[in-house]
Design goal:
heterodimer; A: 257 residues; mainly alpha; B: 67 residues; flat
């Protein structure tokens, strides 16, 4: 396996694990509070719809000429990765609330408990919340698998890494019967942001006609440089925040997204 | 038409996210890379420099003190 393929598998695995942990929290909350049966039907329906989206988009992407594919997918991945990294930097520097699975579980559980009487048989609330949670988190997984996989013509490898991540999260959820709040989600998101941004820059520039010095080997410089600069931004923001009144800093302190 | 509007809003939020300037900047940087790549000048450095500058600018905007 080449270095780029290891990077692909690792990025997809981490991104999918993070999304699966978030989806699991939602399903557990409605399952414990209302109806497991309806929640599982919602999960199944979301998986069917995600499969349909993958089947529709996958062949369309892979049929594009390689340079058009790289510029489109590299650009999308770069925009997507920069947004992930921006959020991760703001979280790591204390300017945005960190994602906390225990708090998210409690929030979902309270909302589910307050959503009226649980229907016997099919519970529409459990179905809808589980469906939406799995579909929206899953859509990010599909996007990452298709963009990474199609660019390197290794959709099988990307799908395999995603499947292993989701399976591990489900097994851990079954084993502990609680949200996976001990998974270092915020650190993993930081890492995924660095990888998405780095691969986006690499493929985007190649697709636009640029030639990287050292070819694929350029990734060995792009990834560490991106990581060091992102960590540098966190350090600078923490230092600045330490010397300023907390209430005066930042627009996104209370945001949980 | 409401579902189409919701779908567009969702697609916008999904890809573009919290700061639209990042998306616009990336598109411009890709166009500049393609333009420069067509000449004899090396163009590989444009996208990394632009992307990391956009990130720093966006983070700085989100973190700046509020009056």
């Amino acid at each position: 396996m080449s270095g780029a393929e290891v990077g692909l598998a690792l990025s997809v695995f981490l991104a999918c694990a993070v999304e699966a942990v978030e989806a699991l929290t939602i399903v557990l909350a409605v399952g414990f509070t209302r109806s497991w049966r309806s929640a599982f039907i919602g999960v199944g329906a979301a998986i069917v719809l995600l499969a349909a989206v993958t089947a529709g988009l996958g062949p369309a992407l892979t049929s594009l000429p390689i340079n058009a594919l790289r510029v489109v997918v590299g650009g999308l991945l770069l925009v997507f990765g920069l947004q992930w990294l921006r959020k991760a930097i703001l979280r790591a520097s204390g300017l945005k609330a960190r994602h906390d699975e225990s708090a998210a579980f409690e929030e979902e559980r309270l909302a589910a408990g307050g959503a009226g009487v649980v229907q016997t048989g099919f519970d529409g609330y459990s179905f809808t919340v589980a469906f939406k949670g799995v579909f929206l988190e899953g859509l990010e997984v599909v996007f990452i698998v298709l963009t990474f996989g199609s660019n390197q013509h290794r959709i099988g490898l990307a799908a395999g890494a995603a499947a292993v991540a989701v399976a591990l999260v489900i097994l851990a959820g079954i084993a502990i019967h609680a949200p996976l709040s001990r998974v270092p989600e915020n650190t993993m998101k930081f890492g995924v942001g660095v990888m998405l941004t780095s691969f986006g820059m690499f493929w985007g520039a190649e697709g636009a006609g640029a030639h990287w010095p050292a070819g694929d080997g350029a990734l060995l410089a792009i990834i560490p440089v991106t990581l060091v600069l992102a960590v540098g931004m966190v350090v600078a923001l923490r230092r600045r925040a330490a010397g300023a009144a907390p209430a005066a800093l930042g627009e996104e302190k209370a945001v949980h997204a | 038409m409401r579902w189409a509007e919701s779908l567009l809003r969702f697609a916008w939020d999904f890809v573009v996210g919290d700061d639209w300037r990042i998306a616009v900047g990336v598109v411009l940087a890709l166009a500049l890379t393609a333009l420069v790549a067509g000449s004899s000048v090396a163009a590989w450095w444009i996208l990394p420099v632009a992307a990391l500058a956009l990130l720093a600018f966006s983070v700085w905007r989100a973190a700046r003190p509020r009056g």
